[in-house]
Amino acid sequence: MKYRNLGKQGLKVSEVSIGMMYHGSYYKKKQSFSLLQEAVNQGINFIDCADRYGIFDSELPMEERTPAEEYLGEFLQGQSRDDLIISTKVFYKMRESPNSGGLSRKHIHEAVKRSLRLLQTDYIDIYFCHRPDRDTPLEETVLTMSDLIEEGTIHHWGTSWWPPTMVERAIWIAKKLGAHPPHAEQPPYHMYARFIEEDLIEVARYHGLGLVTFEALATGMITDKYLKEIPEGSRASKFDMYTDEVMERYRTRISKLIPIAKELDVPLSQMAIAWTLRHPEVSSSLMGASKPEHVVSNAQACEVSLSKVILEKIEEALKDS
Fold first, then answer.
1. Is pLDDT above 80 for 94?
2. What does the pLDDT look like over 9-20, one tens digit per residue?
3. Is 95 exposed, middle or buried (0-12, 13-18, 19+ CB in 10 A)?
4. Which residues belong to the active site?
5. Going from the N-terminus, what domains does the chain have, and what CATH number goes with each?
6. What confidence score (pLDDT) does residue 113 get?
7. pLDDT reported for residue 220
8. How far apart, in whole angstroms, are the C-alpha atoms of residue 141 and residue 46?
């Protein structure tokens, strides 16, 4: 495993990290622990979670769901906590109440206390604002997150899927107030979703912001997993969005990329992850996994080198697709 600094911060994160979006809902404890342990075995030191993971976006009845943070907290008891980078998130409503949601001072303090309890830890390495909150003054959010750093509850804070203009505004507000600015942004990024190249990468470069990108495989669509059919029980089989038209477009796209991966003698998935890591502004590529062998393969992507010639071939393959 290779490691990069989180932007201009001294914190070093593994180039490939593991996310827990489906833990506690689709993945129960035994499977969750096996995935997390394999990640640690592979040298992955960065585990990303959120307060809503495991509770929402699940087919299970509410009483059968477990917060992913609870799983992670149990897992951490058998690990060297100081060797791991743990992130979680705040924003979404956790119950039906006017103040149970958003990025107000009240909700952030409520949420961080709950996360610390479930994670069974006394600090969070990176605390992300899961989405922007346009109902709360940005100054209030910035100062609250900065105060959490000062008191040692969190070490760094970041944003997730925020417009670049709001990220930059938060940075300038923090400078004006003498507060800690956001240190990271977590956006989606893959070969068919490249909006961060328009201005977010430049914002990150200028301010020393670390980018923790996710969906490098476009929820499995930049792999050869669905070339023949959608396997029963797979993620794609659970959603209506994967229509015949969508799958045909997918197969056309992938057929152009597979020969390039074969030339490199690596799985298409590893090439896709390495492609996101070609930018030095990307501190880590956040990956999900349903099987330990997927974790192993994802981790190996940081060893894949993409030459200028290969990158040009990939660009050509992505044209008009």
1. yes
2. 999 999 999 999
3. exposed
4. 53
5. 3-220+269-303 (3.20.20.100)
6. 98
7. 86
8. 25
